[in-house]
Amino acid sequence: MPGVDASNGAPAILDKDGLGQLIAALRTKGYRVVGPRSADGAIVYDDIDDIEDLPAGLGDETEGGRYRLRKRTDDVLFGYTLGAQGWKRFLYPPRQRLFAARRQGAGFQVEAEEGEEAPMAFLGPRACELAAVALQARVFGDKTFPDPGYQARLAAAFVVAVECGAAASTCFCASMGTGPEVTSGHDIRLLEIKGQRFLAEAGSDRGREILTGLSLSAPTAADLKMVAAARKAARAGQGRVLDRDTAAALQSMPDHPRWDDVAARCLSCGNCTMVCPTCFCTTVEDVTDLSGDHAERWRKWDSCFSVEFSYIHGGAVRTEAKSRYRQWITHKLSTWADQFGSSGCVGCGRCITWCPVGIDITAEVAAIAATRKGTQG
Predict the structure, then answer these.
(1) Sorted alphabetically, which PANTHER family does this protein's record hold (predicted)?
(2) Cα separation, 115 vs 189, whole angstroms
């Protein structure tokens, strides 16, 4: 089949060998390639050396409080929906040393940090995950106090997005306007079609540069038909919807009786905040060695579901599960817009999947919406 000149941005077909060439090209350029692989009974995002590391023939089953890998009847490489955790931990590490200092005389001297990190290439982000990255970039891109580490990692990252060919039962990105089609935030966009073949399109100049060096072929009419069908299936297969109007109004309903109902089920474990791709709460911890000559300051992920998170001198502000869950969902869906101009939810459904008791954020909002309509009626 004739080759394709990817320099003009035209869509092309990339086969399995071509994907291997893509991974090799990124590694040659000095990128640390991170992508999906199977480990500990889940799809995780981790270092990828070559195409054999990808989870061929694996899919996933998700529901409230349930996640399972399953064998597919085909050998697709990206047949799962989402990894257990998102890409947040690479751009915004769970534990990050802010500085270290060593005693010198009567004071301390701050030690120089280690050299620059290798730039990362992300292989496989879905549309909702790229929307989450864009939201966090806004959080950490404050004009007065930007987070230099986050911004530097994001600016250096090369993104090879992979569009969803199907939806999980917990997905609702379509109702949030964040997917399932990839429209921004990528250098290359792929969509896997039958036989480990991909429709490939460049989204940036550096994406075009990489694709130009790969073995590509022109898509056939049958290929484009399969792409259209996959995109339609990914949108139509979403069984959950979030009422965005009610979600935006949650801040005006602090005394709604639904908060008591959800509090009776919530374990305050913080799973939802740990897997959420947009949550950004942290705590800071200072540590010293036993001699007192060496000190370090670390930033670590934290959760607004912990009693200690709201602790100030004299005690915690939010001592009940009711107030902590209300704080999380109200900020995520309502007051986030006051701060950052949009909802803080991208509809990935991870909080539903990884909640031990299956609390469903869309069901909670729907229950509140029902009472609102009843009151207004």
Answers:
(1) ANAEROBIC SULFITE REDUCTASE SUBUNIT A (PTHR40447)
(2) 31
